[in-house]
Design goal:
With 622 residues, this protein is α+β, with helices and mostly antiparallel strands. The protein contains 10 helices and 39 strands. Strand 1 and strand 2 form a beta hairpin.
């Protein structure tokens, strides 16, 4: 009997035994979890796993985790699940033969050699408790699961244990991250024991760091590991990169002579290596398409370049390797690069050498930096990486070993949006006008794909963009994509019925038709986490407002200038003549990290921006 559950067997799993502080803001409670991990040598890992989860509501169903992955070198036995109702009474028991066994294909993969064993269970009432048990043996030791104090947001932990026992020859290492102070660590010569007890749920907060940077966690790995029949070395990044180059990349750049000749012909009159790289990049984009292929060395070894050349498709590894092979054929050096691709910036942890990352790109060296190439997307411009692989530590794999390098950072000034437009108000308060929107950096990243969308999807995008406008009709949409400079220019014409409002004989006209900021972060009484603005931006607008004939201006706001550590905001109004006004606006939002005590000031700054974006002029008939 676990010390945690000092109750009779009849009510062992009732939710009424959960401490009150673990129920607060929780969709589920991890009642007990224990991984007993034995590593007898660098090529074998055995795990006995028991997991008890009480699901409090429908949103907590995703925390059950009654599933396991396996493949040719990973075997599952004695998998079972038992379901208990709220009173702790057993409802249903499942053995391994009751699990569904399917391919782990994700819907976009051409082929994947991993399979998924999972239980298909639909609860009829809440709360309920699930006990999952399994034994797993694998010959791959390259990836050992990390220990997390909490599973995710809105999930609390009552007790969780990792017990790792390993032989003398095994070089186990671990590293603590995040808020790890409550994780108990017990080490001896051949064992590591990690324990967390009574960890309340974490609630996401606006403008906070990512979950991995908040939660207490312990990364675990082996210096000498085994991956799909290969012995690996992860003592440091140089050695690990050298292993990758020699075992995963070498021999994969086999291009047909015909393709090599074609590539050389494309760049025959070009001297500049970056100009050559751009021509080859465009060639790859026109010839290939992305399809995930998770086979080979744990999904880490790329397809042969000759296969990609023949088939015209590949995953990120394959297309990166194919581009690298073509560049090598025309004398341009480049390096295979591993990283975490995501909208949230996530670094390869440079102080903990292990298999990391979920994506591959290519780095082309310049005199003092790199040009970064996203090889898996036919629409991404040459050297453009904003929004998915920018501003993070990555592993560049060179022939002499690996090196941690930081990718391009897009500054606040880089992430710009400039609007120039006009609109006319008629005597009934309707608005008609147009705007030209020029975007770069991260703001370009959110728009260049619009060019290929059909008209209906484009309209959906702009209706969402202008969701603060009622009765809006889009009369013309024209989007230009300058791929060479990574700039979009949107030319939009629209009409807004009843845009202005009336108070007696006075008409109230909102100055900011085209770009109001509306995202006010939630009020938080007791902020838990520091404030993080992960990316900055700059918006500027110049808008001409034409008033209806026969109307005169009664009152005009005086304008505003706001300055704070988080950015600046200003708007001004210039009355050119009695029927025409020029409205100018500038909003700069700075990237940065601040103490949690600054959250109220950030919220106040944003609230002031929102309020000023709603300013109106008052006019009436002469």
């Amino acid at each position: 009997m676990w010390a945690l559950f000092a109750y009779s067997q009849d009510n062992l799993y009732t939710s009424k035994n959960i401490p009150e502080d673990l129920l607060k803001s929780a969709n589920s409670v991890l009642r007990f979890e224990k991984h007993t991990i034995d590593i007898p040598n660098s090529s074998t890992i055995k795990t006995a796993h028991k997991r008890v989860v009480t699901v409090l509501n429908k949103r907590g169903n995703r925390d059950v985790e009654a599933y396991m992955y396996y493949d040719d070198v990973t075997r599952i036995k004695n998998a079972s699940v038992v379901i208990y109702d709220d009173s702790g009474k057993e409802v249903k028991k499942y053995k391994q033969r009751d699990f569904k066994d399917v391919s782990a294909a994700d819907g976009i993969s051409l082929y994947i050699d991993t399979r998924l064993l999972y239980l298909d269970f639909t609860p009829t009432s809440y709360p309920y408790t699930v006990v999952v048990e399994s034994e797993i043996t694998s010959k791959n030791t390259a990836s050992i699961p990390s220990f997390y104090a909490n599973e995710g947001y809105y999930s609390s932990t009552e007790e969780k244990i990792f017990e790792i026992n390993y032989a003398d020859e095994v070089n186990l290492k671990h590293k603590m991250y995040g808020d790890y102070n409550r994780i108990k660590v017990e080490e001896s010569q051949n064992s590591l024991r990690l324990v967390i007890k009574n960890s309340p749920s974490l609630v996401p907060e606006d403008y906070s760091p990512g979950f991995r940077n908040i939660v207490g966690r312990v990364a675990i790995a082996l210096n000498d590991f085994h991956l799909e029949g290969l012995d690996g070395d992860a003592r440091d990044w140089r050695v690990f990169g050298q292993w990758m180059n020699e075992n995963l990349l070498q021999g994969a750049q086999d291009l047909p002579e015909e393709t090599i000749t074609q590539a050389k012909e494309l760049v025959k009159d070009i001297k500049d290596p970056i100009a050559k790289a751009k021509i080859i990049y465009d060639f790859v984009q026109n010839k290939t398409r992305y399809i995930s292929v998770q086979v080979g060395i744990g999904g880490w070894k790329p397809m042969l370049a000759s296969q990609v050349d023949e088939l015209g498709y590949g995953d990120c590894k394959a297309l990166t390797n194919y581009t690298k092979s073509l560049l090598e054929a025309v004398g341009v050096p480049s390096y295979y690069t591993i990283l975490y691709g995501s909208r949230d910036k996530r670094d390869i942890e440079d102080d903990f050498t292990a298999i990391q990352g979920n994506h591959a790109i290519l780095s082309v060296p310049t005199d003092d930096d790199y040009v970064w190439l996203e090889c898996t997307d036919q629409e991404v411009p040459f050297g453009f990486i904003a929004g998915f692989t920018d501003d993070r530590d990555v592993l560049v794999v060179k022939p002499d070993g690996g090196k941690i390098v930081h990718t391009k950072k897009y500054t606040t000034q880089d992430n710009y949006q400039i609007m120039n437009g006009s609109f006319t108000i008629d005597a009934s308060g309707n608005a008609q006008g147009g705007v030209s929107i020029k975007s770069g950096g991260l703001q370009y990243a959110g728009k260049y794909r619009l060019v290929a969308e059909n008209q209906d999807d484009k309209k959906k995008y702009y209706y969402k963009f202008w969701n603060y406008l009622n009765n809006v009709s889009l009369t013309n949409i024209n989007i230009l994509n300058n791929r060479d400079e990574a700039i979009t220019t949107e030319n939009i014409e629209l009409e807004v019925e009843n845009y202005a409002s009336f108070a007696g004989d006075e008409m109230l006209v909102s100055l900011n038709l085209f770009n109001r900021y509306t995202a006010l972060p939630d009020r938080v009484k007791n902020r838990m986490f520091e404030v993080e603005i992960s990316r900055g931006f700059k918006d500027e607008e110049t808008i001409e407002i034409n008033l209806p004939d026969g109307f005169e201006v009664v009152s005009v706001p005086k304008g505003e200038q706001l300055k704070s550590p988080f950015g600046t905001y200003s708007y001004s109004i210039k009355e050119v003549e009695n029927s025409k006004i020029i409205y100018k606006r500038s909003f700069i939002f700075n990237e940065g990290t601040y103490s949690k005590e600054n959250y109220a000031k950030l919220r106040s700054f944003i609230r002031s921006v929102i309020r000023n974006d709603q300013q109106k002029i008052v006019i009436k008939k002469q």
